[in-house]
């Protein structure tokens, strides 16, 4: 009986570690739209970073803190790394190799 409990606990710990440290973090997948929209809630920030004040239509999490952001005008790849008090944001235009915006 103790062996079964230890085996179950072992698998729960392994499963939790995989979910937390795997590059495709499921938490970021489910909260992607909320996170991106909270960063770009200000219209001036959207205009400065995307080049226009268009609304964000669709957000998909791609892995490694990179989000696919679709606006009215264009699509972007946005890398958002957060620490306790700051965000590091890099924006690339989709299908082009040009850095659109960097903010640290």
TrEMBL record:
Keywords: Membrane, Transmembrane, Transmembrane helix. It comes from the Bacteria. The chain crosses the membrane at residues 5-24. The keyword Membrane applies. This is DUF3139 domain-containing protein. It comes from Ornithinibacillus salinisoli.
């Amino acid at each position: 009986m103790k062996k079964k409990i230890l085996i179950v606990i072992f698998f729960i710990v392994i499963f939790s570690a995989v979910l937390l440290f795997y590059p495709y973090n499921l938490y970021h997948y489910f909260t992607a739209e909320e996170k991106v929209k909270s960063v770009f809630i200000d219209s001036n920030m959207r205009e400065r970073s995307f080049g226009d004040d268009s609304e964000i239509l669709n957000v998909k999490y791609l892995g490694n803190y990179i989000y696919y952001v679709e606006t009215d005008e264009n699509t972007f790849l946005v890398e958002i790394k957060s620490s306790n008090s700051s965000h590091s944001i890099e924006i690339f235009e989709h299908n082009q190799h040009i850095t659109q915006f960097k903010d640290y």
